[in-house]
Design goal:
Helices cover about 45% and strands about 15% of the residues. With about 1900 residues, the protein is an alpha+beta fold.
Length: about 1900
């Protein structure tokens, strides 16, 4: 039985549970669970990380924790009752855990390790908190460490800032928003970092002195030295070391540890040094024998220094080893530390023993009490305290000090009759008035108890010794009077006896007879000579003597002998009881001299402040004593003195003494009657504020009013206690009268910065501090009323003194911060006057920082959800007074330009933030009643309208991202919650007041705009949050976007016919909202679009506006990164909305409207597909190819489907930039031509657009032309550049701009030069299929042909594509994939090489045209590509594979020709035909014959530098023929069986026989040519070839060739004899036009065009084209390879791999005119289209009369199995012609043994037409024309660009060689040969029609 749990509600999983039982819940260790029910050792509940999944789990796997339950029942919420810091730590560490792993994945190793370390630290600290054994202080410390680490981690990971109060997270709902803002700002500015301590302490522990030869005891003296002021700043720490260099008393830590206390922050700088002086106790000379003398002296040993700055770098507790130095001459000892600091190396060096001093030093921070708490062990073990010289910063009452510091400086002594200087030792005693030596009052330093006498160190042979030893004499005050210091001087002998002889003494009294002590400073004392045995114990004998030069005691007239000997000391008194100031002394002793009281009181103001504060308590006691005794006589004087002392404490120097006065008032003040006099005198001064001469004095009085009131109140309390509360009423009357005077004084108005306004300012600045004093005696309400009246009496004039206005506001600020204001009773009294002044300042926009602070404090006191009546009334008052002005203020300050200085900007942001938090606080506190009252308070609709517009604008400002720092999500969510609540209240007002006849567009527009930007805020996009953060936000606020979306929908429905005002303006904003991936929001918003279309349809009969706006906005939003795949599908789902509403429109209308609606949505959906692809591709890191392809797809869509001209042009330029970046210069030029096409050569002005300035259309077109030419030049596409040069030259010529015309002609000429001089690489082409649903839309399940990069072969291209699509799988076959591949959720790439089929054959077939011209036509303007796949049909004959070797030929037709605006274009159409083995054989032989002819011709005309290619080719054919070669064809096709079975192939068999004989002829001629040029070392090979050739001839049954065929240049100028294919002669036209017979289009290339061994290898080459790998079985392969390796690239003629041999060389000899003609033309020739540059007209041949006759070999049309799919064609002078060698090269064409891979590259050009039937026809062409392209489908994207002719005012003829035929009648040109097109072809294609394709008219770009 499952029972709901009562107490077991919350627990942590302590063992993993897989949940394998029925209904089991899978849990991991550390998960937290909420328990709902229990049953027999099992719990039912859910893990908090996934609350939707509930299940059961064992109870013993759960550790229960205490928790409290909110909302018991179905929606109960369980909160663990643990420390909030622990809760936060746990949830934060969980969030960090996942992000931490991501850091590892992203390879951010540094942060990964640092975070790991911090997480471990937090876990350790968490354990300490959980154990619960920490003291309160330690717990606070641990929590501080935890929160500091949590904040650091959150900041590093970009998480939100957590507002905290006393280390615990605060709930933003529990505190006011102003307080939340302050907490956030506090944490944002890192104000939680500990405030730098103002007090510091240095801990010193002496460890040892390391020295090789010690042997004597040492004294070590530490002190702090200020090198800047050149003086010590601390007392000395003195300790003794034994002979081993260790402390003498190790058991007493205070003897070797000291704390230098009370160092200020100013003393932690690099010029403060720790100095260590070391004195040895022993013999005079360090190296003297032990028995020299027994007397021991103090002698210098060494010195070490260390800068405090070295300790600041790090609190290292390791021991420091300080180097010990010694001065070179002893006389410098007194300043050795200064020399070391100044690094005067000449004056010191390391001690001979190379000593090192081991010390431990540590800087401690905080006051001494804090140090005692934190370092208790240090004080319990014992440590000596070393003070600073003089007083610390604060002297507290009761502190007793009486220390006299004496520095023994130096002496000047005479030799005393000796030849050498003395060794002087000073002995000092403190002697009392009776002549007795005072015991233990000489302190050498802390760490050593005081002694009775002091012995200085001895400097060897020095009559002017300098000691500079500091001593402290802590003499009690009672022994100070009459005491004196006596110094005795002795000479220390170095003789054996080692005696010390007295030779003089000095003395100085400590106090004068009048009670003044020895003044501070240096004193030159007289050295009185005396004998060695003089008795100095009778002090009375010498005290009468003068002690200091120039000072004589009393009337002592005893003559002093002039003496040269002097002794200098410096004294400094630090006493709280003794003074060196006589006036101070007289005041303190006022009772002894009553007659001097008045004078003393006047002189008090002249006494140094430090003397007064030193005796503060005594001085105050004196003043109040005088007042008590004679208030009438001295009342005002005492008052003035009191004011002087109080104001003295305002000085920053003595600011620290305020606590002293507070303590005095609280504990020591006893003037019970003083209040009367104080009130009276204070009132007297306030009543005389108008008297100018008293202003300065009154100002001083007003400054001191706080303490005057303190004395008044304390005095009255003392009086009440003493008298039982007598005269209470009298006292109240006095105070009332005093405040009446104050009110009158404050109400005085003054113009400008007058003295009166200054007094008012001084009074106001200290007035709030009086409240707390008044509260001690009066009721809260009374004080509040007094303050209200005082502040209310202030004049409200704002044009007065500005400084007074600021002080007034500060006073109000202090009032709000005071204890008085926190009481609700007094607050209600004070609030109106506070708000009144605030309102005035805000209205004037003055003192905004102060206003913001006051407002913040006001709202901090009003807690949220406080429903007390008083609070509601306060809110009423504030709303009425401030809401409007607050809105205006925010608008004002946010519209100002931000100040430039960083400090000012911070201030500016603070003010804005504080005002915003105040507004939000106010709005959050407002209830329904408040809103209702507010809305009712507006008198007119205009006022309400202005208010609503204002508040909507302010809300828009609050939503701005820059309003708060980016990690203030907590603050943003609170703000949004307030905004949405307010908007819900105000939307009612909008509906009630501004609909129907009162409709106001502006306010509704403002409302919708606010709603849209509210929903679009980044901080509300919950999808981007971590699951835990999302859960917290949803629990606290819900999804505010949905709430606002519903509100938009509701308001839209209310609009009715007014909706039309918002169409199409709101389409963009609403579209933006629907792009948010929140299903509920989308479901609410998308129907609005349907509604918009409906209303637009009603209004205008269509919704073009909606469509245009929709598309524009969609483009900009998608490119910003909004929207997703789901959204596209959702948008598509609007289509059903157009069906089911019959009531929408009449039935017919609905039908029409539905269709156009569906059409629009379909268009938009398709656009979104492309935009989503575009956005994904444009992300960082994507490859250029993908970006380009995607942009092309989008660009074409905009042009063809949407007709969006401006968008189209924008994307043209985006594409152009991409091409430039990828260095696709040719493609960049073609892209820019798209824009160029849209422009005319006109003077129409164009506006500024993109990067173009404002200019005429002509100028822009000129600029574009020049840029395009430059890009064609860089892309080596010079022929296209030439055409554009001519176009622009035409323009220059028409305007007679000969300067630019000249430049253009020169540019044109340079392009011709480049064609002839520079080498161009022919790219390879590859077909790529993209299959599978994971590809972007523009690629998905489509095939493309791509133009490869220079030098890029199949393998490299394949690798590049796999890199671009790293998740794709490469398909290893070339077959068309099936439907499963198309629909797969994956990416499949199918790649193989294809062969271009040039459109322009005529140029390629002409002889005499250089290869570098032909190379352009082979690979440019290509529409068609071919790919061949060999296969066997039927049974395969192992003896002769050629019998069954068929070829499947696939022709791919593209949507645009390559190259174009992209490197790849989609395949529009595929044509597949099969070639029979016989046709295959014919093609192989034709190709090989053509190759042989070309090589022989090149060799003949000396075009070939190296004859190896010819040698290799001859060898391949002849050797192969001997070993099988063509004989295999004979075996296959010439046998009787084949002829009988294939009667239809008779013609083809004859043709094959002809080709074999032709090949033999060519070989014979080739061998003849070879013999002439073969080098000597290749002769044996040539001989072998000749022998083998005769074997081959005999195998073919050939005996001798016809005698008429000779190897003569006349009959065989192109190097290759050819047997006539038909005996019927065809006469030529007189102009020399050729009729070129045609052959079968089915041809098949040799795999290796250098060897006919390919004949035998082709059959076995059924290997996938994709791998590009195949093997050849040919025996001569190795020799070919060896030969080929000798051929340099430069030696090879360039050819295309894809053309039949017959297409590559044209023989002009009549007997060899059986070559094939060119192809059908794909180039467009209509007016205005760019075509392949035309070829100059060919002159008539006159070399031989025989040229006029050509033998034509007819081939019946029926012989081709491809006849059904091949188009007829019209020859053209500009058709392609290709010579076929170079693409055979392994360098340029892949491996030359590459089987099918080569096959696809080597396939020769098909002939898309048929041989003419044997009719004799002549054709003359009167005019020069290019081939006309048949009309293509209109749906196809137009050709890449057009350069069109226009009739100019003065036509400029172009050179024929590169001109474009104009639409008008062209001038007559020499006729060209044209092929007669047979009319009786069985099949005709789209290219049969000669109608030119209609060119779209050039579109004008409006002002672009």
């Amino acid at each position: 039985m499952w029972i709901p749990t009562e107490h077991e509600k919350y627990g942590v999983v302590i063992a993993g549970f897989r949940g394998t039982v029925p209904h089991g819940l899978s849990l991991e260790i550390g998960d937290t669970v909420q328990i709902l029910e229990k049953c027999d050792g099992w719990y039912r509940g859910f893990a908090l990380k996934n609350p939707n999944v509930k299940g059961i789990f064992p109870s013993n796997y759960i550790h229960l924790k205490n928790a409290c339950v909110k909302n018991k029942g179905q929606f109960e919420m369980v909160i663990p009752t643990e420390d909030s810091v622990i809760t936060e730590m746990t949830s934060t560490l969980r969030d960090w855990g996942t992000m931490w792993k991501q850091l590892y994945v992203r390879n951010e190793g540094d942060l990964f390790h640092r975070l790991w370390h911090i997480m471990n630290e937090i876990l350790d600290l968490r354990r300490q908190v959980l154990v619960g054994h920490l003291t309160h202080d330690r717990m606070k410390d641990v929590k501080r460490h935890i929160t500091a680490r949590l904040d650091w981690g959150n900041e590093q990971l970009g998480l939100d800032l957590v507002p905290r109060k006393e280390y615990a997270m605060v709930d933003p709902e529990e505190i006011s928003i102003t307080e939340l803002y302050r907490l956030m700002e506090h944490r944002h500015r890192k104000k939680d970092t500990p405030v730098p301590a103002s007090s510091h302490h240095l801990f010193v522990q002496m460890k040892s002195l390391m020295c090789s030869n010690l042997g004597e005891e040492l004294e070590v003296i530490f002190s702090l030295f200020d090198s800047k002021e050149n003086r010590p700043i601390s007392e000395r720490f003195f300790l003794r070391l034994n002979r081993n260099g260790l402390p003498k008393c190790p058991e007493k830590p205070e003897r070797h540890c000291s704390l230098f206390v009370d160092l200020g922050s100013s003393e932690l700088r690099k010029d403060i040094y720790i100095t260590v002086h070391i004195i040895r106790i022993g013999r005079m000379g360090a190296g003297e024998k032990k028995n020299a003398c027994n007397v021991q002296y103090r002698r210098p040993f060494g010195c070490a220094v260390l800068s405090i700055a070295d300790l600041l770098a790090g609190d290292s507790k390791d021991d420091l080893i300080l180097k010990v130095y010694m001065c070179n001459t002893e006389s410098d000892w007194y300043q050795i530390h200064e020399n070391i600091i100044k690094k005067l190396n000449a004056r010191y060096n390391l001690t001979g023993s190379n000593a090192g001093l081991a010390v431990s030093l540590q800087l401690l921070h905080g006051d001494i009490e804090q140090i005692r708490r934190e370092y208790t062990s240090m004080f319990t073990h014992g440590v000596s305290i070393t003070r600073k010289l003089g007083f610390s910063n604060i002297i507290m009452p009761g502190e007793m000090r009486n220390d006299l510091y004496i520095t023994v400086e130096r002496g000047e002594f005479e030799k005393g009759g000796k030849s050498v200087a003395r060794n002087v030792e000073v002995t000092m005693h403190v002697v009392d008035s009776s002549g007795q030596i005072l015991k233990d009052f000489i302190s050498f330093g802390s760490g050593e108890p005081p002694a009775s006498e002091y012995h200085s160190f001895v400097l060897y042979h020095n009559n002017g010794p300098r000691w500079a030893e500091l001593l402290k004499l802590p003499i009690p005050v009672d022994k100070f009077r009459g005491a004196h210091i006596r110094c005795e001087f002795r000479h220390c002998s170095t003789k054996e006896k080692g005696e010390k002889k007295l030779f003089g003494f000095s003395f100085v009294p400590l106090m004068q007879e009048n009670g003044r002590t020895l003044p501070d400073g240096t004193h030159e004392l007289i050295v009185h000579k005396c004998e060695e045995n003089t008795n100095l114990q009778d002090s009375g004998r010498y005290l009468k003597l003068p002690f200091s030069k120039g000072i004589f005691l009393g009337n002592n007239s005893q003559a002093v002998k002039t003496t040269k000997e002097s002794f200098w000391i410096t004294s400094f008194l630090c006493s709280t009881k003794l003074t060196q100031n006589g006036d101070m002394l007289d005041l303190l002793k006022w009772r002894t001299h009553p007659d001097k009281i008045a004078g003393c009181l006047l002189k008090l103001k002249e006494i140094d402040g430090s003397e007064i504060v030193k005796f503060l308590q005594d001085t105050l006691d004196t003043l109040f004593g005088i007042l008590d005794e004679n208030s009438q006589k001295y009342g005002s004087k005492v008052f003035d003195c009191l004011v002087h002392i109080i104001n003295l404490l305002q000085d920053s120097k003595f600011h620290h003494f305020k606590p002293v006065m507070d303590t005095y008032i609280e504990n020591h003040f006893a003037g019970a009657l003083a209040y009367r006099d104080l009130i009276k005198v204070l009132k007297w001064h306030i009543d005389r504020v108008t008297e100018v001469e008293l202003h300065e004095h009154i100002q001083e009085v007003l400054k001191a009013q706080e303490y005057i009131f303190k004395y008044i109140v304390q005095s009255r309390r003392l009086f009440s206690i003493a008298t039982g509360g007598q005269n209470e009423e009298e006292f109240r009357c006095c105070i009332q009268e005093l405040l009446m005077s104050v009110r009158f004084f404050l109400s005085q108005e003054s113009k400008g910065a007058s003295a009166l306004s200054q007094l008012q300012a001084v009074f106001l600045s200290s007035f709030p501090s009086v409240y707390s004093e008044l509260l001690k005696l009066f009721d809260v309400r009374e004080v509040a009323n007094l303050v209200h009246d005082a502040l209310g009496s202030l004049p409200t004039v704002m044009h007065g003194d500005e400084s007074l206005q600021a002080v007034k506001l500060q006073s109000i600020g202090k009032t709000v911060e005071s204890h008085l204001y926190t009481n609700p009773d007094s607050r209600y009294i004070l609030l109106p006057v506070v708000l009144h002044h605030l309102h005035i300042h805000l209205q004037e926009q003055k003192d905004l920082i102060m206003c913001a602070r006051i407002l913040s404090n006001i709202f901090c006191l009003i807690k949220k959800n406080s429903s007390e009546k008083s609070v509601l009334e306060e809110i009423d008052v504030i709303v009425n007074s401030l809401l409007d002005i607050l809105l205006r203020t925010i608008l004002e300050i946010t519209s100002r330009p931000q100040p430039s200085g960083s400090a000012m900007r911070l201030q500016f942001q603070d003010v804005t933030g504080e005002f915003v938090s105040c507004l939000l606080s106010l709005l959050r506190q407002m209830t329904d009643r408040h809103y209702q009252q507010l809305l009712d308070s507006f008198n007119t609709k205009e006022d309400l309208r202005d208010f609503l517009l204002q508040i909507f604008t302010v809300f828009r400002i609050l939503i701005r991202p820059e309003m708060f720092p980016k990690d203030w999500t907590v603050m943003r969510l609170v703000a949004n919650n307030v905004i949405i609540t307010t908007v819900l209240y105000l939307s009612d007002a909008l509906r009630k007041n501004f609909l129907n006849e009162n409709f106001d567009y502006k306010i509704w527009d403002s409302y919708f705009f606010l709603a849209v930007i509210f929903i679009n805020q980044l901080c509300l996009q919950l999808e981007m949050f971590t699951p835990s953060k999302k859960k917290k936000v949803l629990e606290k606020y819900g999804d505010m976007r949905v709430t606002m979306g519903c509100e938009i929908f509701s308001m839209w429905q209310n609009l009715g016919e007014h909706k039309l005002h918002f169409i199409p303006a709101l389409i963009g904003p609403f579209l933006e909202v629907t792009l948010i991936p929140q299903p509920d929001l989308r479901n609410v918003m998308i129907p609005i679009f349907h509604d918009m279309m409906d209303w637009e349809q009603r209004r205008s009969g269509n919704f073009k506006q909606v469509e245009a706006k929709l598309i524009d906005k969609l483009d900009s939003l998608m490119s910003e990164g909004k929207g997703d795949e789901t959204y596209r599908e959702l948008f598509n789902s609007i289509i059903p909305l157009f069906g089911p509403y019959p009531s929408l429109l009449k039935k017919i209308e609905r039908e029409t409207w539905r269709e156009s609606g569906v059409s629009l949505i379909a268009t938009v959906t398709r656009l979104m597909e492309r935009l989503l692809d575009y956005r994904d591709c444009m992300k960082m890191g994507e490859v250029d190819g993908k970006k380009i392809g995607c942009t092309v797809s989008l660009l074409n869509f905009y042009k063809t489907e949407l007709n969006k001209e401006e968008m189209y042009i924008r994307y043209i330029h985006k594409l152009y930039d991409l091409h430039l970046k990828a260095q696709n210069f040719t493609e960049a030029a073609y892209t820019l031509l798209l824009y160029d096409e849209l422009l005319e050569w006109s003077d129409r002005p164009l506006r500024e657009f993109l990067n173009y300035p404002m200019q005429t259309e002509w100028q822009r077109k000129e600029c574009l032309h020049l840029t395009i030419i430059q890009n064609f030049d860089r892309g080596k596409c010079w022929e296209n550049g030439i055409i554009l040069c001519r176009k622009i030259a035409e323009q220059y010529e028409s305007y007679y701009d000969y300067r630019n015309l000249s430049k253009m002609r020169m540019m044109e000429a340079s392009l011709y030069d480049k064609i002839m001089d520079q080498q161009r690489l022919e790219p390879e082409f590859f077909r790529v299929g993209f299959y599978g649903k994971k590809f972007p839309f523009f690629l998905r399940n489509k095939e493309f042909v791509c133009r490869g990069h220079d030098y890029e072969r199949l393998e490299a291209f394949q690798q590049r594509m796999l890199n671009e699509f790293p998740h794709a799988i490469a398909m290893q076959h070339a077959n068309q994939p099936d439907e499963t591949i198309f629909q797969a959720e994956a990416q499949y790439l199918q790649i193989y090489a294809v062969t271009p089929i040039p459109e322009n054959q005529e140029v390629l077939q002409r002889d005499g045209i250089p290869d570098n011209i032909k190379s352009f036509y082979k690979v440019n303007h290509i529409w068609r590509f071919r790919y061949d796949r060999p296969f066997h049909k039927g049974t395969k004959d192992k003896e002769n594979e050629f019998k069954s070797l068929w070829v499947e030929r696939t022709t791919l037709i593209l949507v645009q020709s390559l190259p174009g605006i992209s490197r790849w274009f989609e395949v529009e159409k595929r044509e597949v035909v099969e070639m029979s083995p016989l046709e295959n054989a014919i093609e192989v032989l034709e190709n090989k014959n053509q190759q042989l002819r070309t090589l022989i011709s090149q060799c003949q005309t000396r075009q070939m530098q190296n004859i190896n290619p010819l040698t290799m080719c001859l060898n391949g054919v002849i050797d192969a023929a001997v070993n099988g070669g063509v004989a295999r064809y004979q075996e296959a096709f010439f046998v009787k069986e084949y002829v009988l079975n294939h009667p239809e192939d008779g013609e083809k068999i004859t043709r094959l026989r002809e080709l074999m004989l032709e090949q033999a002829q060519i070989l014979e001629f080739g061998l003849a040519v070879h013999e002439k040029v073969v080098p000597q070392d290749m002769r044996p090979l040539h001989k072998k070839l000749v022998d083998q050739f005769f074997v081959m001839k005999s195998s073919l049954g050939i005996q001798e060739f016809s005698a008429c065929v000779q190897a003569s240049p006349v009959h065989f100028p192109n190097g290759s004899p050819r047997v006539c294919r038909n005996s019927i002669p065809v006469s030529m036209s007189p102009d020399g036009a050729r009729v070129i017979p045609r052959r079968s289009p089915l041809s098949y290339p040799a795999v290796n065009r250098y060897s006919s061994s390919s004949l035998s290898s082709q059959a076995s080459a059924e290997v996938s084209n994709i791998t590009g790998q195949s093997e050849s079985s040919d025996e001569v392969f190795n020799m070919q390879r060896m030969l080929f390796n000798h051929i340099g690239d430069g030696a090879l003629p360039r050819s295309d791999s894809n053309l039949p041999g017959s297409d590559k060389v044209v023989n002009t000899t009549p007997s060899s005119w059986s070559l094939d003609s060119g192809k059908e033309a794909r180039n467009t020739s209509e007016s205005g289209k760019l075509i392949s540059p035309p070829v100059p007209p060919r002159p008539a041949q006159t070399a031989s009369p025989a040229r006029h006759v050509a033998s034509v070999s007819p081939s019946p049309a029926g012989r081709s199995p491809m006849k059904g799919s091949v188009q007829s064609f019209t020859p053209s002078p500009v058709e392609y012609h290709s010579s076929g060698l170079i693409s055979n090269s392994p360098v340029l064409s892949g491996s030359y043994s590459s089987g099918i891979s080569s096959l696809s590259r080597c396939s020769t050009s098909e002939t898309s037409g048929f041989e003419s039937q044997g009719s004799e026809t002549t054709v003359t062409v009167p005019s020069y024309s290019v081939s006309e392209e048949p009309v293509r489908k209109e749906s196809k994207t137009p050709p890449p660009y057009s350069v069109y002719e226009r009739t100019l005012k003065r036509p400029v003829p172009l050179p024929h060689s590169l001109s474009i035929p104009p639409a008008t009648d062209p001038p007559a040109l020499p006729p060209k040969p044209q092929l007669v097109r047979p009319n009786n072809l069985e099949n005709s294609s789209r290219r049969t029609e000669q109608v030119p394709r209609p060119r779209p008219l050039p579109r004008k770009v409006s002002q672009l």
